[in-house]
Amino acid sequence: MTPPVVRWPERLARAALSRVVEPGELAIGRLVAAHGAEAAWFAVRSRDPAVGAEVLALTRARVDAARPEQDLAALDAWGGRLVCPGDDEWPRGADDLGDARPLGLWVRGRQQLGEACGRAVAIVGARAATGYGEHVAGEWSAQLAEAGRAVLSGAAYGIDGAAHRGALAVAGETIAVLACGVDVPYPRGHDALLARIAEQGLVVSEWPPGCAPMRHRFLTRNRVIAAATSGTVVVEAAARSGSLNTARSALRLDRAVMVVPGPVTSAMSVGSNALLRTEGVRAVGSVADIVEEVGRLGADLAPPVRGLTTDRDALSATVARVLDAVPVRSARGAASIAKAAGVDVNVVLGCLGPLELEGLIERSGGGYRLGPVGRPAAEARRAEAAGA
Amino acid sequence: MTPPVVRWPERLARAALSRVVEPGELAIGRLVAAHGAEAAWFAVRSRDPAVGAEVLALTRARVDAARPEQDLAALDAWGGRLVCPGDDEWPRGADDLGDARPLGLWVRGRQQLGEACGRAVAIVGARAATGYGEHVAGEWSAQLAEAGRAVLSGAAYGIDGAAHRGALAVAGETIAVLACGVDVPYPRGHDALLARIAEQGLVVSEWPPGCAPMRHRFLTRNRVIAAATSGTVVVEAAARSGSLNTARSALRLDRAVMVVPGPVTSAMSVGSNALLRTEGVRAVGSVADIVEEVGRLGADLAPPVRGLTTDRDALSATVARVLDAVPVRSARGAASIAKAAGVDVNVVLGCLGPLELEGLIERSGGGYRLGPVGRPAAEARRAEAAGA
By three-state DSSP, how is residue B83 classified? Predict the structure, then answer.
């Protein structure tokens, strides 16, 4: 574990503030950004009117409930810690949330949080997932983990659980971001799963120990899932699924948003398929597609689906022979192509129109040469045939 | 049936040329565009060197095989006709093919071709379709036909057949565009289906009677499917499916290209799902989505999937009450909102951050009002409640 770099008083202040206000409050974020967490907490605690009516109102109800030393000690007993902005292991992506940035992240687990998030892809989706969705979430998470990625999700039933389990099954890295304290076993049925994630990966929350999950907290939490990762994959989502909210957060943050297409006859794919009609959302058909989307430019390119990059496969053997006889760069007439292909010139003439339409060949001077569609594939093929 | 307006000699010339050259030949298209079909055919028939070496080479092999009167009589005996550019029932969309425009379209059936194409959506896909694909093709085609649209397809096994049958089942309009003569029963197993289409809808081809289907002709034919309709829906397509070629033609012609998402675990959806990653291709989840894509601006808008247009559905009852208390335009402070909502001011303050993050509310002066996301839905809701 990386040693923290944020000083103790600031850590205490952030722990206190995270108990007193709900995360994501812009007024609190602005106050902390302007004066630092220590001064902000001092002002809040002393009910300094200078913080403004809004901050006073936001903090009044719980200001006396703050117990930062106790919360930090509780986490310590669980082998956990509070990771703060400025700490080495702070996930840089969270800074894109601006004034809605978490005050801190309560963490259980041995991995370095920032590095794990740097490798992470979010896999989210429906609680009431189908076998199809759970299969894809589990299988792809395992493949992502095996490819050295971390799988981040929300520990809910359904897709989230399948995603965490897929990574755990191959001894991979997985991160659960909760909408309650990291010591709260929610959902109940995922008690053992959460313990395994804390053991093998990371369990993370903005809420201090003991906080209960509340409906609005899931919406607040979703922005952290989106911000902490470089891309979010929605596996299955009904029309009103919360994972659509995560996807929208990711879009606002300029993260890659990917959707696993599903049958239009499945209610659990209505929301995810509809998301495909949103600007900037991509359909992914494999882990290679995901890696391409989140990967750096040029690296990690997904292998193209055969038959999509060239129309050559759809051609008859004769037409393919004619096409093979068309030069890459210098044009050649129909008679010369016919001779090279060993077919009648009329056959060649019958092929030229369709091939030209498809962009596989193009007219040049009095003859034909390969067109924009045909050229790259043919060059590779001929280089290979020549043993290059 | 609309009376033709193209004169007999031009019709004969087009019938003759369509026997002598494969459709889509740009050199022939240019010749006809420059001099008219009659003069073009006269020059070709008399082997006039002025047409250029390419046209001579393209036409040499079959120029003596032309038998336009006989072909037109044959079609007439089948209750068919040759529809030419300039005829009232010529489908205007075909003109977008430029010099690759068909010389004419051989047609069987009673409907007016141009009007039918004007109402038509192309539904295409895999021959080796799955039950899922055939179900969607059949069901949606029936719904499209019931909504007054025509369903155009290629009469192949699988998706094409299911699409035609879906329209026929509701006594709807359907158009089959073939890659062989309209009198050729291909594929064999669709003999009866083609007869029903000719009876209830239209069977169309660029090739004169008796022409056999050849592999390259399917590629040539696909451009007509794309051009004659305002949109093409790909239901299922394997990685190397010919329907991907139709989709690409439609994209080049600026037609709407739509894909039915399918399970990523199905080989029959690999090509169609991959097409979703192409610029300009939309995922459709229902017939309403299709009608919206091909429909005119403003009309035919698909009902939004609930929960995608507003985040309001995902909110707890209390948060929803708070949101309801936020004014549409003039801002109001937290205390006033609390009073209106009948909840404690601290509850209100706890909600404001997440609501603001979601764009449901926005800060204005010292208070809050509905934000860009929340406003349109709320206005409609309140107008309705007020009986407006």
Answer: strand
